[in-house]
Structures are given as C-alpha cells and as structure tokens.
Amino acid sequence: CALPIFMRGVRFVVTHLQYPRKYTCTGVARSPANEDFFEAESGRTSVASYFVSQYSVRLKFPNLPCLKAGVNKPVSLPMELCTIVPGQRYKGILSGRQRKGVVDATCKRPRDRLDAISVAIPTDADDPTMRDFELSVEPTVQTAAARVLPPPPLCYKEARTGKESVLHPRDGSWNLRDKALLGGSQLSRWILFVLAPERDVSTEQARTFVAEMRRECPKLGVRIDANPIGPVRVHPNDLEAALRANVENKVPRPQLLFFILADDSKAVYGKVKRLCDTKAGIVSQCVLAQNLQKGMQYLANLSLKLNLKLGGQNLRLETGLPNCARGGTMVVGADVHHPSAMNQDSPSIAAVVASIDPDFCRYAAQVRPQKHRQEIIQELDIMFALLLKAFWTKNKRLPAQIIFFRDGVGEGMYDEALRHELQCLRVACSTVPVMRDYAPKITFVICQKRIHLRIFPQAKDADKSGNVPSGTIVDTDVCSPTEFDFFMVSHGGLKGTSKPTHYIVVHDDNNFSADQMHDFVFRLCHMFARCTRTVSIPAPAYFAHLAAYRGHFYAAQDDDRLFGYRISSLW
C-alpha cells in the first residue's frame, strides 16, 4: 500500500486534546483502531476502547488504521482525530501539468527575482531572534567581477555544396539554416508503431507525418530511403508481443523502431525504452501525438536525434579542447539517479559515459543499480574498465588524459567521492591487459547544479532575456579562497532567471590553468548534439544524467542479467 510511504514524515495535529499538539507521522498501522491492541495502565486494550475510556471519544470510523508517531515511545492515533498541517511540501512525483504549473508560478525574470529577494531580506527589527543574537543581513546584494567567454566556432556542412563550414554561436544558440549535419546517416529499414487509438492518431495522420519526415530530414543530411513497415497499431499492454512478432528473426534487422505515443505517460515511455534496449536491441525514437503537426522546426530537431541514433555525427569543435592532445583524451561524465522521496525500495541508478572519438561526439555508456539513495558509485571500477575497453576497441590506443565530470555530489561528500571514485578509476586503469603500468593523468571535476546562488547582470550587460550572457564566469569574491572552483552560466536565458553551475576541481594531474579549465568546460557545453543551444553542464555530464534516468526503467524489471559483470570477464 502506498499510504504508509505517502504519510511518512507528514506533520499533523490532533483534535481530541484541549491544545493543538503536533506530531510527525512515522508510519501507518496495519490493523484498524478497534483491532490495534497495546498495553495500557489498566491492561491490554484497543486504541478505539482507549479513546472511549480516556477521552470520552467514540470513534466514528474504528475500521480505519491509525497513524504512528514517535520513535522512542511510539503512539497510535486514530485518523479521524488528526488534521494535516497545511503548507507542507509534497514529496511525490508531479504530473506534467503540475510541473508546468510550478514553473509558471515560480518563474521570474532576473530583475523581478532580485526585487523579491531584496524585499524578503529580514532585519533585526523584524526578527527578534536576530536581534537577540545581534545578527544582521546586509540589505544590498554582493557585487562580483565577472567576464564572458567567447563562444567556440562549430563545424557543420553547407547544405548545397556539402563542404565543411564554420558556424559561430550567438547568445548561447545557433541556427542551421542552409547548413547540414557534419556526418549524415541513412535510414532504409524501420518500423512504425502507433501506441494510440485511431481517434487520437489516424493511420492517415501517421502516414502524413512519415511523408513530411522523408521530405524535411534529408535537408539536414538524414536520408530516409524507404517508408517504414506499418503503421502497426498496438496497445501498450501488448507491446512486447508486438515487438516479438514484428522484429524477432527479421532479416535484415531494422535500424530503428519509431513510436507515436498518445501522451507523455512515463509508464508507457519507460516500457518502450526498456523493451527496445534490453529485448529487441534496436534504437528507438518516440514522438507525441500532439507534436505530429508542429512543422519544419520540430522535424529539424527530430533529425538531430535520429542522426545520432543512426551513427551519424552532428558537429565538432573547430579547434578542439584546450590542454588536450587530439585522440589521446577521454572526457567522462558520471551521475546517479535516485528514486522519488516517496519510493523507499527502488535502487539508485549509477551511470558513467565516456567519449571514444577524437571529436568528443561519440560516447559509450555503462549503467548499474546500487543501494537505495547511495550517491557514491560503488562499481565505478568495473564500469570504467568497460569504457576503457570501448575506447581501445575503436582507437587501438588508450587515453593519456582523462577528464572526469562528476554530477550530483553534495558539498559534504566531496572528500568521500574523490577518495572512493578516484581510486576506482585508478584500479580500472591498472587492470587493463593491453598496456602494462597504464597510469593516465586524471582530472576530477565536480559539477553542482543545485545551488542557491544567482548571478544578476547590470542593465547594460544583460541579454535579451534579462539574464547574464552565455559564457559568464565568476571566479572571484564569491568563490573559495583555497579551492580551485568557479561559477559558470554557459546557457543562454530563455525563461526566468538562469541558474549557474558550480564547478570544483578537486584533483588535477593535467595541470589546467583557470583559463584553460573555463574554456574547456564552456566548449563542452556546446557539444550536446541533440539541440542547437549550449546546455548548463558539459555534454558528458548531461549524457550521464540521461543514461541514469534511462537506467531506472531497466531496474524496474529487476533483471540482474542486464547489469551483472565480473571484473575478470571485462577484457
């Protein structure tokens, strides 16, 4: 039952006393109040009988279970005598509409947010506790020196001539008009599944969308040489059987499984990805029914994803990354996805991705389940050994430099993460059989997104959204005087106030200067090839986040065969 999980940690007040006494719920009793017995001073009695004799309260609903409260001296309290304290945070998963409502309600332009913060600053006249402790808060915001990095030039192709062309981002984005993807791809074998009733997506609508794809995607270099098999209309409950019937023993195998979904249900999306990745072993692409008529821009964005999934290359940096030898550097991203606060049983999912090409465009990924809400990656040595093997298989060499971006580590866990995970990286390197005494230079960088600091520009420096420009760096005044850290807003503002990312270099064998590290991070923020905008964290860290999220769909199946490896069997 989900009720004990939902109620755990919720504060409530009881109404049978003459004063409003507060409790924090620790669980829900298994038995109803008239069958929940305990030892009272007068002997063994039920909760319902106790309230009649002690408080002269006869329960109207004695068949309901009681709320549990207290740890050292637990008590049982009838639900009908409890009132939930208003204004508490809901810990469950919000629907898409609810998330949109939260964003709309909390989204404020930078100037409006700064004004709201200024009004909310407490004074000793307002707060007696501050007055008693002789504390005060400076009413003005702290100023800090900042600078803006120039965007790196990106390489695409001219759509007409096919020659390589340089494109210069502006305000954290760029336009692919008259451009084509650097390395195109070809799609000739694919199957179209429609996971929606005819009234939501007609067969004619599906075929019209395919025709539009065949017309627009080749403009960016994604050739679609044939219509798909289908559309195959299937209920989500019958998806596994439909995949078996249409994909199993198919020669040649399809390159892509394409799905039109009725809505943004995570259950359906998760099932599609799990079955395609772990059963069919074929890449998949999902689109929502509501997006079928969005036009050219949507199809262009879809082409970016399709090209990557079909083995193409969207772009590359014109001048590479600073302080790196071409072909001898691996950039790595790592993240851990935790279940929601109300989920007390599911494992956390650790993901590590690593570049395996000189252009930092192609990545290999490893995903593992681990203990519930365990942040430190427990099997990093095994996962990284497999990624080194993937690098060796493609390049016939091992990287001399490894730049490791770790996402999601809280401030109190820096030392533990560095101690355990750096050691795992070195253990993985020591187990490589193709090179004796392999010891690459490792740089370990922590990326923190969940921070409260915001950077507000002066009016003359703001971009069109009112935020600081893409590439803004702050590495003085508000940074640590002893650590190698900085704040960066790499993405361009769209809505609300841009949130900076805090980078902390906790280990550096490669001797990056501050300027080199700033430029390195900013360039990687342009390499998230699924869109034509800079992103808020480096591409490998972003891919690790996506891989960990995908992995929680796999873990829902509880199939250890998807994750089980021994280190002796890696090479």
Strand order of the largest sheet: 8-24-25-26-23-22-19-20-21
Proportion of residues in extended strands: 15-25%
The main sheet comes to: 9 strands, mixed
Q: Per the principal axes of the C-alpha atoms, what is the gross shape? A: globular
| Annotation field: number of helices | 13
Helix content: 25-40%
- The chain-level mean pLDDT equals 92
Count of distinct strands: 26
What is the C-alpha radius of gyration, as a whole number of Å? Answer: 28 Å
The N- and C-terminal alpha carbons lie at a distance of 45 Å
Secondary-structure class:
alpha+beta
Low-pLDDT residue intervals, each spanning 5 or more residues? 558-571
Folded structure, characterized:
The protein is α+β, with helices and mostly antiparallel strands and 571 residues long. It is 27% helix and 24% strand. It has 13 helices and 26 strands. The radius of gyration is 28 Å and the shape is globular. Mean pLDDT is 92; it is low at 558-571.
Topology:
Elements: H1 3-7, E1 11-14, E2 22-32, E3 37-40, E4 43-46, H2 47-55, E5 65-69, E6 75-78, E7 82-84, H3 96-106, H4 110-120, H5 128-132, E8 147-148, E9 154-158, E10 164-167, E11 179-180, E12 185-187, E13 190-195, H6 203-216, E14 222-224, E15 229-233, H7 239-247, E16 256-261, H8 266-280, E17 284-288, H9 296-309, E18 316-317, E19 329-337, E20 348-355, E21 363-370, H10 380-395, E22 401-407, H11 414-430, E23 441-448, E24 472-474, E25 484-489, E26 501-508, H12 514-524, H13 539-555
Parallel strand pairs: 12-14, 13-15, 13-16, 16-17, 19-22, 22-23
Antiparallel strand pairs: 1-2, 1-7, 2-5, 3-4, 5-6, 8-24, 9-10, 9-11, 9-18, 19-20, 20-21, 23-26, 24-25, 25-26
Helix pairs in contact: 7-8, 10-11
